[in-house]
Design goal:
The complex is a heterodimer of chains A (327) and B (130). Chain A is α/β, with parallel strands linked by helices. Chain A contains eight helices and 17 strands. In chain A, a hairpin with a 5-residue loop joins strand 8 and strand 9. Chain B has 130 residues and is mainly α. The longest helix of chain B has 18 residues.
Chain lengths: 327, 130
């Protein structure tokens, strides 16, 4: 007979009982709706063993990689530890190792955590200042390779956290990180699959992580990165990306601007029009869309209608916290 | 007799069918506006539940769920025409999955049985009194 451990409690399951029924029977207010494996309301995360057979059916492969499973479909055959998906785990202390300016309004922040902080490059973390101020940022590097966490922070006018990071935080400074969250990361196992990466602003951060991880794993399929901005001032990491494109023939780097002059590597116009001209049919592609929420939602629909499978579209809309009013 | 759900290939087939169905709905200007600003993933999960239900697969949906789930759309003008469009695209999707026209008719009848719930109104047929 199998048992589950949830929030420090061990619950015995009756033979054939699902994880969801076990949680509910024990008085846990576990979220659920259809109880038939469709609505995904009841998703939880397996912490120590693979989820039971059949309990990941129909889930996105990025969700599977994170150990997420449907509790209403899960009948464990061995003891397992599980967590709710909104359980962000413990806060980990971290020391700043670098703060560098990447453009007029973007800074690169590098952190070393006090303890190992397991995450996938491109997932986002919540950065917490000593006084409790907290904001989320995407990771921009390959964690296993680098041994540090890199974040790209856009300095927002009157932004409480971003202003502090850009102007006051120095190497040696202390913060905490919580997380990780999100499903924008490189999915292993399909090295030949073409990848579309579209981002505006610091939406580039998770894409940069995914790109580096794909290249580090000798991804052989076509990789197209569209970096969108109003004009050239809104771009960053241009030299690094151009160097990578030169080095890897399967990687195409296109800067998409609303204003400016078209030239080698720069196209002018709406990013969805540039996308459609470059890749008319997206059947079989995996897409990552990050940045401005309106653009991300609009593109997600267009990429889906363009032929991509919805389970292979990973979107991360960057929602701004309203900045404090200037005094 | 096995359900149409099993005959057409079970969960993987329905997962694929939802992709086809949702693409048809989003591309149809008669109904596309109802899908603006919705969480696409959540929406498709619900449609998978709907397809599973009308195909006789495992589900626990009730008329009440259909009523509650569409109330905000009825307020935005959802009417019989839109339900017709859903049934039309449902039929097209099923044919692409390999269903026969007879099976499509059968499923359409099932989908029609929740029409009044979806449109949040009393049943149109007069109940039998004893």
């Amino acid at each position: 007979m199998a048992s589950i451990e949830y929030q420090g409690r061990r619950l015995e399951l009756a033979p054939g009982e699902t994880v969801l029924d076990g949680l509910l029977a024990a008085g846990v207010d576990a979220p659920h709706s259809c109880r038939s494996g469709h609505c995904r309301t009841c998703v939880a995360r397996a912490l120590d063993v693979a989820p039971p057979a059949g309990s990941q059916e129909g889930l996105k492969d990025s969700w599977r990689e994170l150990g997420l499973f449907l509790t209403c479909r899960a009948v464990p055959t061995e003891d397992m530890r599980i967590a709710a998906t909104d359980d962000l785990g413990l806060e980990v202390g971290a020391t700043v190792t670098a703060v560098e300016r990447l453009s007029h309004d973007v800074v690169r922040l590098r952190l070393e955590t006090d303890e190992p902080f397991e995450h996938r490059g491109g997932q986002f973390v919540t950065l917490v200042r000593v006084d409790g101020l907290a904001r989320s940022y995407s990771t921009a590097n390959v964690p296993g390779r680098d041994g540090f966490i890199e974040l790209h922070v856009r300095e927002i006018a009157n932004g409480a956290m971003s202003g502090w990071i850009a102007r006051e935080l120095k190497p040696g400074g202390r913060v905490a990180v919580r997380g990780p969250e999100g499903e924008c990361f490189y999915v292993h196992g399909r090295p030949e699959q073409p990848l579309l990466l579209v981002g505006t602003g610091t939406g580039l951060a998770p894409l940069f992580a995914i790109l580096q991880e794909a290249l580090a794993h000798a991804h052989s399929g076509r990789i197209v990165l569209l970096q969108g901005a109003v004009d050239e001032r809104g771009l960053y990491l241009v030299d690094e990306l151009r160097a990578l494109a030169k080095l890897h023939p399967n990687f195409e780097y296109v800067r998409c601007l609303l204003r400016g002059e078209a030239q080698e590597g720069i196209e002018i116009g709406a990013i969805d029009a540039i996308l459609r001209a470059r890749i008319p049919a997206l059947r079989g592609w995996r897409a990552y869309l990050c940045g401005n929420p309106e653009l991300v939602f609009d593109l997600r629909k267009k990429v889906f209608l363009g032929g991509a499978n919805s389970k292979e579209i990973h979107a991360d809309a960057f929602v701004m916290k309203a900045p404090a009013l200037a005094r | 007799m096995t359900s149409l759900y099993d005959q057409l290939g079970g969960e993987p087939a329905v997962s694929a069918a939802v992709e086809t169905f949702y693409r048809k709905m989003l591309s149809d200007e008669r109904v596309a506006r109802f899908f603006d600003h919705v969480d696409m993933d959540g929406q498709m999960a619900k449609q998978k539940g709907f397809l599973t239900m009308v195909l006789g697969g495992p589900n626990k949906y009730t008329g009440l769920d259909m009523r509650a789930g569409h109330k905000h759309l009825v307020a935005r003008g959802l009417n019989d025409l839109h339900v017709d469009v859903v049934i039309e695209h449902l039929g097209g999707t099923l044919l692409e999955m390999g269903a026969t026209p007879e099976q499509v008719t059968q499923v359409a009848a099932l989908a029609n049985s929740v029409r009044d719930d979806v449109l949040d109104r009393a049943p149109q047929t007069t109940p039998i009194k004893n």
